[in-house]
Sequence to fold (755 residues):
Amino acid sequence: MKKSTIYLFILVLFILFAKNINAQNAKQPVDYVNSYIGNISHLLVPTYPTTHLPNSMLRVCPERENYTGNVIAGLPLIITSHRGSSAFNLSPYQGPLDNVKSTMDFGYDNEVIKPYYYSVDLDDYNIHVEYSLSHQSGIYYLDFNNSNEAAYLILNTRNGELSSNKNTISGYQNLNNNTKIYIYLETDLNPVETGTKKGNSIDTKEKTILGKNAFLVMKYPEKTKQIKVRYGVSFISADQAKKNLEREIKNYDLEQVAQKGRDIWNSTLGKIQVTGIDENAKTVFYTSLYRTYERMICISEDGKYFSAYDHKVHDDNGRPFYTDDWIWDTYRATHPLRIIIEPEMENDMINSYVVMTQQMERPWMPNFPEVTGDSRRMNSNHAVAMVADAYIKGLRGFNLEEAYNASKAAITEKTLAPWSSKPAGVLDQFYKEHGYFPSLAKGEKETVPEVHNWEKRQPIAVTLGTVYDEWCLSIIAKQLGKNDESDYFSKRSLNYHKVFNPETKFFHPKDASGKFVEDLDYRFPTGIGARDSYDENTGYVYRWDVPHNVADLVEMIGGKEAFVNQLEDMYSTPLGRSRYDFYHTYPDHSGNVGQFSMGNEPSMHIPYLYNYAGQPWRTQKRVHNLLKQWFRNDLMGIPGDEDGGGLTSFVVFSQIGFYPVTPGLPMYVIGTPAFQSAKINIGNGKYFEVSAINYSPENKYIQSAKLNGKDWNKSWFSHDDLMQGGKLELVMGKHPNKEWASDDNAVPPSFSMTK
Fold:
């Protein structure tokens, strides 16, 4: 054999070997998740590096203030609400008993957090911790390295009861609204002593302890190298917690539990497959997708669940029961995303909303359903948008009539005043008669009991949010054949005109006499978070809050050219105050580009509005730049409160290349793709792919498009187009093609165009 042939043969073998190694080491979707993104907040609440399975009851997170916290307070066992603290607490310890207390603070190092796995060194005491979990049970490995000291486990309940029996502890912790969380915990080793701490000894006769910060201590002999702990949790009973554990984790094999969790996450995140050379973009994408699966959570346990809405245990009748949702945040993009990739789950979630309503004293659709009941936060009643969007896009797994009645009752029988669960009052009667929620007149003092003393009236936010909700009611009524009601709510959905100031072309609060509030600066509305007029954002953001009728808004502002100019003006107008002064008053209005706020949900649709004025190239530029500026693979890579998928669902859609501007209209507005390909598994063996031809991370402008092989000159496509499967091909370039999708017939549809 010639030398050249030998070299060629060796080269081929090397290439094949390298390809095989690369294939073996290829990242799977879960490997891209960086739970630390956003763990240091810009202003308010950071993201939390939560370990959990998709939409599962059991969620855990290190107990510390944020990523920079110097110590962790014990080991978490279950978070019962998004951004909440852990119920119960487990503290491993090795050393003198007199140092033991209810919750131990630990210095820590070498932390590793994945969606399905956690490990950390508690370096003050030379203890190494590993953890993994299932849906309603978890497992810890605790390795002790001070062999000459006794080892201890301390389990506390912050307000409840604990009982011990040999190697087990069980009990409960009280939550709000007469709700309890139960635990059953056992260890692989039998402790030499278990009981309450009394001075420098353990009282083994006292097997049960009750009260605030009550705790039990399990003592293990010197030279204990490892203790394995497994536990189950339940909202029903300690016996059910034990059943949940025995069903899910049958032995003490943590690696097996972690591998199963990893497989579940890969299957879940793999419903959207992205390709391209930008590894950071993939990390941001899959981390964002992972965050959309933190809520809602399934609390069905062996076909039963405890409901805080009537304080009873119910059969779930074969359907998972979900709760923990902040609908003001999640109706915009989180629920629409589930309609595409988790339709069965979305059906069950909407059905859960309906069931909650049936269990409540007043049949008003919830708007912040949590484990402990509906907390009635924020403004408006956007669960109706969740219902309308799902039904109009083909979901049928819930009772539409009951959902409609509950949604209508929440809008017409409950007060529209923010953060209130009181019945409708004088302000609501005014809204019904006059079509807008009135502000206080200059110098007028608040006397209406429904109005929250901190949250105020938020008159523009309430008016714009409610007219959109009424439009959603009109859609559902039409589907039910209630044509008179549909017409009634359809007409009411145009009442945003009542608070539009034709001189300034902003939405401007009016008092009960019909007079616009005087001396209003849209950059600096009065009240913390602008609550005297808006909510969490200034007039510049709420100027665009007519998602059901953008075409009408274009005309109100003066036509397409004026509309684009005013959008640009928003991005160009500076804060106008020092950041210290500005954020002291408007802390939620973060992630600023001029007056625009990328850090708050009411802004998420705004970058896509250029499409409605025939300049989609500006949307492409804006979306690309916003993703690059504010959603990054670093500790501060989230610009505002993430709200359990509320903000990161914007990232998922936007990186794929489109966005649901109007939940309730079955269509998507095209932005710009971040990947060479994004392939969505829509079920039944079908896929919808967004393919970027001439792909490059910097090629953000669409030159031309094809939908299923046909030339596509519209800046939107329908939900039917997506669900039939196929491919949207976008030819990309570094510079804009300002002609693409610029014609009048290319703009996305609005209510006024489809009624």
The chain has a mean pLDDT of 95.
